[in-house]
Specification:
247 residues, Rossmann fold, 6 strands, Endonuclease GajA/Old nuclease/RecF-like AAA domain-containing protein, P-loop_NTPase, AAA_GajA/Old/RecF-like
Length: 247
Amino acid sequence: MKLKTVRVTNFRSVEDSGKFNVGDMTCLVGKNEAGKTALITALYGLNPYGDFSYDRTRDYPRRFVSDFDERHPNGKSRVVKTVWTLDDAEVGAVATAFGDATLTSRDFGMEHGIGYSGALWSVSIDARAALEFLMGKHQLDATERAMLKDAKSAKEAVTAIAAVGQQSERLQALNAALVALREQNFIHAVIDIVAKGLPRFFLTSHFNRMSGEVSINALNAAKATNTLTPSDSIFLDFLAYAGRYVR
């Protein structure tokens, strides 16, 4: 899966970043205290590699801390909202479990924040299509399918099967498959499949500084002898980013 867009709200110095796109490489450029580290830290908290959780006192914008309860009566303040897209392997894993028609979009959303018990997922699926696939997998006949014609979810299907006095082995096998789903919910089952590919974020605060003065001759000499300093490399990277090079 790949991260597509990010939006950060009410986190430290960032009140609302607006939605921005994320590519294979994304660079945040701004003055000191502009909120670059806050943005990265907010994203880190979505699925951190280390021990981290959003904290109301530490992370909510200080000038609004006293108004938190008024602004968020439910005690929750979203910090980061993201959109991701699944790769072919992940789409294939869902199709193997529930059929090609279950996923209605490769894109899915995730958000997390202060007061959340965990990240919230938003996945677009056709639950009826998933049920139809499982009915076919367990070879239900026309009569058995008719018993489930009004079921629009796994839980409704389980209830409908429970109402059948004498269940065939096929119905019993389908029921076992549905009961095995987390909370008897197709959305949760799909999330459990794709969550295996969700990356953990690693955050480091180490950085290098660019020199205040640069000698082109010295840079060329350092390049020739492979003795560039970290500050020299930063300068050259910025030049390359702007489409310019030292010759």
